Structures are given as C-alpha cells and as structure tokens.
Amino acid sequence: MTDVSEARSGVLSRIFAAEADTAPGDSHEQVVLCHDRDTGLKAVIAIHSTALGPALGGTRFHAYASEEDAVQDALNLARGMSYKNALAGLDLGGGKAVIIGDPTKIKTEALLRAYGRFVQSLNGRYVTACDVGTYVADMDVIARETEFVTGRSPENGGAGDSSVLTAFGVFQAMRASAQHRWGTPSLKGRRVGVAGVGKVGHYLVEHLVEDGAQVVVTDVSEAAVNRVRAAHPSVEVAADTPALIRADLDVYAPCALGGALNDETVPVLTAQIVCGAANNQLAHPGVEKDLADRGILYTPDYLANAGGVIQVADEIHGFNFERAKAKAAKIFDTTLEIFARAEADGVPPAVAADRLAEKRMAEVGRLRTILLPGSRRG
Length: 378
Description:
Layout: H1 11-16, E1 30-36, E2 41-49, E3 55-56, E4 59-62, H2 67-87, E5 93-100, H3 103-106, H4 109-121, E6 126-127, H5 136-142, H6 163-182, E7 191-195, H7 201-210, E8 214-218, H8 222-231, E9 236-237, H9 241-246, E10 251-254, E11 273-274, H10 287-293, E12 297-298, H11 301-304, H12 307-315, H13 321-329, H14 331-345, H15 349-365
Parallel strand pairs: 3-5, 3-6, 4-5, 7-8, 7-10, 8-9, 10-11, 11-12
Antiparallel strand pairs: 1-2, 2-5
Helix pairs in contact: 2-15, 6-7, 6-12, 6-13, 6-14, 12-13, 14-15
Protein name: Valine dehydrogenase
Family: Belongs to the Glu/Leu/Phe/Val dehydrogenases family.
Pathway: Amino-acid degradation; L-valine degradation
C-alpha cells in the first residue's frame, strides 16, 4: 500500500477518525482486542473491508515494542489485504490479526486455541491463515476451535505452506518486471539481492537460482542463511541489509518485515527493480514517487506477494494445488497490466495498483446493495 504511516497522534484517533480526515481506503470496519489472561493471549484482529466477501488474512505472532505498535501493524496489514485480495480477483475482503509476544517463548496449544475461539466468535467475518511467526501446525491447532481458518496441513484437508505459492508469485512478478525493464522475462545473469530468506525467501532463491540469476542474500538468522547456502552453494552472503542495499544489484527483493523502502534506503539503492515478498514495503506516502524519480521500477508488494493468499483462498472450496498455481501464475500478466496503466496515467505503479483495486472494491462491493431473498444488506 502507498500509505502505511500514521501521522495522527494515537492509534485510536486513526480508528475513529472522520472519513474526511483519513487517507483513501484507510477506514476499518472492525477492530477486535482479544485477551485471555490464563493463556497469556493478547491479540488484535483488524477487519478492513468485507466489500468483496469475508476478510481473509494471516495471523502474525511477533514481539512488538508496544501494544500500540501491534494495533498499527494490524491496521496496516488488514488494509493491505483488502487491496491484495481485490487485485488478485478474489471474492474476499481484507483482514489481519497479530498476536503480541515472542512465539518462541509464549506460544502454546492453549493460547492458540483461545485465539481460535475469538476468531470463531466473529462468525466468518474474518478467516485466518499463516503469517510471520505462525505455521501450518499452528493453523491445525487453531482449527480445533474455529472453522474459519485456512493454511492447514494437507492431512487435515488444507493447502499446506502458503510460502510455496507466495514465492512463486513473487518470481512471476519479478519476471514481468524484467520483461518491462529489459525486454526479457528471464533473470539469467542478473544479480538479485534477497533480504530475508525465511519462510518465503528461501523458496524465492530456489526459483532464481534455477533461472540462472546471481543471488546475494542476507538474514538476521544465521540458520536461515546456512540453510540457503547448503542448498545453493553459489549464493553469496551480504553482511547485513544495509550492505545488501548498497551492493551492485539489478533487482532488490525485500522479503522480511515492512518499511524496507524509506528515506534512508531509497537514495542508496543500486537496483533497477524492486520486487519482493514483504508486506507494506513503503515506509510512508511519497516513497513510491522517490523510487520513480530515481528510475527504479517498483512492483507493488501486495501485487507481487498475492500467491500465498491465492493458495489459502483455494482451500476454502477444497484445495487443488495445480488450480491455485495456475491462478498465481497470472500475477505475471497483472504486473504487466499495472506497469502499462502506470505509464498511460503518468503515475507510479503503486498508485496504478491502488486505483485498480479500489475500482474493483467499489464496483463489485456495490452489488451487495441488491438484496437477495432471505438476505440482509452486507
């Protein structure tokens, strides 16, 4: 999304702000605070929009610096999911949840099941899945308390690890970016820097290596880097993300947490293309213009990383991997369409993507005003 910052003071002012005081699309339908003292659960479920259907989005388990930071993250991520699902052509709205705390220290069966009961209490308005800090096994536990969960294990009828098609979709968007910039959809011989080689990043590296790219990686986890190096000895390792950004690159792929593109990183980027898996890569409004002014082609994050939500959304109707992969492959064509619209309108690709997503939410969402027998509005 092009707006992931909070200019007003306090998170409540953002939630309750009048429409005239908010950025386009920055009003949320519902924010739920979930607390269970016995298990230590503290969570936030943010529902941004159900204009296109139930709000689908993952559950992030993270040790936030403050509860307000957690709410802000949930709001930003939920908004991004609305745009991601709309642009992916899914009949789903956008929502996101965060569980506050270090998952390596406080994650338990009881805590996850308590969280599942809060999800169930929303009666289908929100459907959860995996995100940073949560895994397929966690979704299986949560599913013992709620029917509104995707990304479960294949043995439980689920889609499994959504990182697989997330990485595949990012690779398709990167191929389209290469086509637009260099006239070929191949990354062969291109130097690609991947910041974050965890759940999604290591799959992306595999695609890049197979395509003949020269890959440079970095991650705060030494184990994650070692895993990639063991599988792909040709991969280079940068000391840290600032070093990677300044390295001689053709493509930069942010695949960790949000805010990777900011006032400090954009001026020193050497890459001609930015295309990665991280959510909310733009630290604040205006960064997309800064990238464009430097001649850097930015692939909107929620366009590139939609493969994962396409995968888990397919589970809702009975999962078929090949069908989901075929849908995720269309990210290539959508990316080219966004670049063409951006050039035609004279705007950055992030703005063109926002406009197309907002158009679909408005036009299709309006159909809910046509009431069906036995239904209520919305």
